[in-house]
Structures are given as C-alpha cells and as structure tokens.
Amino acid sequence: MCLSYLNDFTSDQKTSLNDLKSSNSYESMDITLIYKLLRQFSLISSPTKGWGSNPDKIDIKLADDVERIRRYRNQIAHRCDTNIEKDEFDEFFNNFRHIGLRMDLNFFHKRNYEQLIVRHKTCSMDMQMQTKYKNALKQLENIRLQFEERPLKFFWGESFDNSLRDLRTFLKNEKSEEGRRKVRVQIIFQNEENVEATIDILNSLKDEINKDLSGIEFIVATKGSIVLHVEILVILLETDQLLQSTLALFFRKILERITTFDAESIDLVLIPVQDFKQWNAPTTTGEPVYLEFDIEAELFKTNDNMEEQFRKISDAIIKHSDGSGTNNNITATLLPICLEEEASYAQSLISEENTRTTEESFTQAQTPVKYNLPVSVTLCKKLNIKKLTNEDLFITTCIKTGNTLVFTDCDNNRLIICNSDGTDIHHIPLSYKPCYITEIDSNTVAVSCLYDRTIQIINISTRSVTCTINPSGYCYGISLNNNNLYVVVDHSIIHVMDLTGKVIRTIPTPTYDIYDITVDRDRLVCIDYTSIYCCSLDGKVIWQFEKDEFQDLTRVTTDNEGNVYITDWRKSTVLVVSDDGQHHKELLTKSDGLDWPRGIYFDKKETILLVCNERNGKAFLFEVKKNKNKHE
User: Fold this and answer.
1) pLDDT tens profile 271-300
2) What is the CATH number for 502?
3) What processes does the entry annotate via GO biological process terms (predicted)?
4) 161 is in which domain, residue-wise?
C-alpha cells in the first residue's frame, strides 16, 4: 500500500522526501510534501470539513490546523505585493501562534511549538536567511497590476518588465528566426480553492487546452497555489497588445473547462522562468560585470583553496558565455568583505547585556523605575509548588483566596492547591484541561477549560465539581463581578452569565483577539498579545495601552486603585500600568526570579501580588506598596 502511495509523488517530491529524512534544517521543509504525506498515509484524522476545504474558525482539530498552515503558506508565498502592514503581519503571526498552542495541547506540551513561534517574531535573521530574503525582495519588487480582462487580473514585476524590454530590443536589432523561439513563463493563481482537483483536471485536459492555440502552449500545472507552466513564442511578446490578447485567449479556454473558479476576480502573477537577454562577455572598454557569490568561509583557509574555487567560477562563466571571452581577457577583482553588520550585531548584544544587568541591579536595589509610577513591591515568599522534582508542569493561571493558593496545571488536567507558605501541596484532578480561573468565594472557584468549551465550578474544600457549564464557543479568560461570570468566548465576545450558565447579556470585545479579562466594579480590563484595553461594562473603550517593547502580554489583574498588572511571558517581566493608562513601568524582571511567567493575581484584601512561572514550579508572593502622592 505504501508503494502505491509513493507512486503518486513526483520524482522531485521523492527526492525531497529522502532529503527530509536525513535533514533537520528548515530549508528542507516542503510544506506541500508534508501535507501530502499526512493526507495520503492517513497519519492523522481528516479535517472537520475534509481535506482541501477552508476550515471554519471553530474547527480546531489537528488536521484543521494542518490545512490552515498550507493555506497561510500559500497566501504568504504567492502574494502579489511584498509590502505587508503591521496589522496584517500580526494577524498572520497570531494565527500561527494559536496553531502552535493547540498543537502543544495535542502533544501534551512536550514540543513547545508556541514558544518557538513567539521567539521567531522579532528574532534576528541569520546571514543565510538575510541573503535569501534580500534576493527574494529583488525578484518580487514592484509586482503590480498590468492589465485586466475580467474576471482576470494580470500582475508582473520588474524582472518580467526587464525581460520584455531586453527581448523587444533584441527583436528590433536582429533579423533572424529568433521570433519563432519559445520562452517559458510561470503563471501563478492567487485565488485558489480545490487546488489538487483543479491541477488534475488541467493536466488531464492539456491536449484539449492547446488545441487551436497559436503561439502559446500549456505545459503542466503544479502545486504551490496553482502554477501553470506555459511556453510563448517570442514574437508574441513583441507588443503589449499581442501579449495581452494571447494571455486572454489562453485563459478563456482554461476557464471554460474549470468550474471551480467561482471568484469574481482571479489574480494571476507572471514570472519569467528564463532570461530573454543574451549575455555577452564584457570587452576591455565595456562596463564591469559584478558577480556576487556565497562562499563557505572554509574555502578561504588557504590561497590554494581560493585559487581552485576561482578557477571553477571562471570556467563556468566561459562555458555559458557566447564564446567572445577567454581566460586571457577577463580580469577579476575581489572586493573586501564587509563585516560591519556582524560587528554591529555583536555590539548590540553587548549593549543589551549591559542594559539588562543595569536594570537588574536597579530592581535589586529597589530604585524607582521610569515614569515614577508610585508602586513598589517587596518579596514576601518564594514557593516551589512541585511535589516531585521531575514533574512536568504547565501553569497557566493562579489565584489567592484567603490563605490558599490555587494554580491551574493544564498539562496534567488538575488544580494544584497549597497554603500561602507553600505547605500542604495537594491536587484536584479534572476531566478537562484548565486554562483560566476566577474566585467565587473562599471555598469555590470557576475554571474555564478552553478547548473543551467547558466551565467547571469547583469546591476546593471538598475537591468536587459542583456545576458544569457549556458555553457556545471556546472559553478563554473568566472573571467574577457582582455574582456574575464574565467569560471571553471565541476571542470576540464577552458573555455575562449567572453561576448556572444562563447568559444575561453580551459585550463586544475591542478586537477579535482578546483572551484574558478581569472585571472590578465599573471597569473591565482585557488584553490581547500586544495591547491592554480598559473598557466600561458595556464594552466602550476608555483607554488603550500599547508599546512596541511589550509583544507578549499573557495574563491581567488589577489592584484596589485600578492599576493594571500584566505578565509579559516573552520578556519575563511584570508590567504595571496606571489606572488612566498614562504611566507604566516594569515592576518585576528576570532578576526577581521570573522565568516565562503566566499567572498573576492581586489579593485586594491583603494587597499581595501572586505571580507564577509557567514551567519550573516557582511562584512568588509580593507585598505591594504605594506612594502617597499619585504620579509624583
């Protein structure tokens, strides 16, 4: 059976499969190949709507996310425009982050996909990727709409324009049969549905499509969106009118045979597969030709190694020239290697380390931090909530109710409970993965189990579930106010419900990516990864806080005066923002023991701040002090 499946792969895919088995490099990751392997070998169950269909927002099976990854990859890889706005980038990033988190849950948090994705959002590219990125930008630069033949829109960029210009110049100057020569062009569909079925149909109808066509020939359709490989007679590229009429006729025949294209507009990008320009070796009076090569550093180790490589380069140039150049009349000059970027990068690392060390010293000395926000903390107790040293924990949230601390352990489907001095550690096993928690009274908590669409009311004294609520969607952050639960559902709406689960009213969220919430008196504070929103209880935004340096806000709580405390998981800090959103400072950092902190809770009765790390079982109780004069 496996052999019959392998027969469906192209020779290139079989080669990629062999390479994939022997390589751990991201360069070897062929998403199309992996998608086909997962699908044809039935390595995972089918997506909710089936393979090839676009998953709905509520579809979160593993296969649904595999389908999403393929589609996001195609959207990014085959854009008509290389420019991307920050909001669009953040949307792509957050979509992948959500996928990573769901995959962590599928694999019991053994993989840390979400953390890997987060680290790559603002990480520096290595030199190999920088070079690849710059070259890709050069190739895709200024791709723009060239003409429209409804419903088709044809795009191409400078590389295609330059090739056309060179070709037309050549045709004017040369009286030959070159006009009968064909050139290969790739045409990429930007709007694609049912990719594999469409490709199969197109390839099966190759002869029918090419029948009665003159000057343009359909060769093959391949994946990566839908890529059509065609050959066009050079003479038909001589004018814009000839090219446009040829393409329009060709695609009318395509659309007559494919019923899956139901979009009002279909974007097509043209890419030259070969240059139309004939290269001539430069003469001694001509302009120099600059060639850039990526050469492994090892080859510069000795002069003999260098000479051997330059000889190979020279031979390759002569082989592919038109014969007018020889080894005797080509002169090569090596320009010095610029290491400024590397030196600058190293210097930035040194500066960053110096800055971090200075900030840590300030924190340890309890020196006031920037903006003079009148809040300071003193460590009361450092706790270890692991009963066994080799336990794997994934602590998502925490609360303090009286002398009792409660933590949600998502990895192990349980609550961890202990006294505020760290004694009497015990567990309450649950049927679902607890993600968010709120206090109802001194003996009762409400826990939202995100991907199980379940809220459980739990008596922590009797260690029993007293009520189970099933919201209409995926439940995220949860908070109690006036005996009502405020629950973030599907990132996009807040349900206000009583303790039996009856929805009293709903509140719109300020964005479509809200995941944590805290409610106190007449204010509702919620967060996404990069912003804090303070709202009235009807959802009207009173103020918004956003700073580029904080890109991974995780959990939120407020004190008696309305100041907002937030964990930043990636920076390993606790941020405090004033009740009017105008002032902020980093209250706690790595120097205070924070290491990927998630849970945070402010005990308003005792003015104690509880913070817990995600993985290592460490939790901290801080006494919070405030100056007399606000914002002094």
Assistant:
1) 766 544 443 434 444 444 445 454 555 555
2) 2.120.10.30
3) proteasome-mediated ubiquitin-dependent protein catabolic process; protein polyubiquitination
4) 148-273
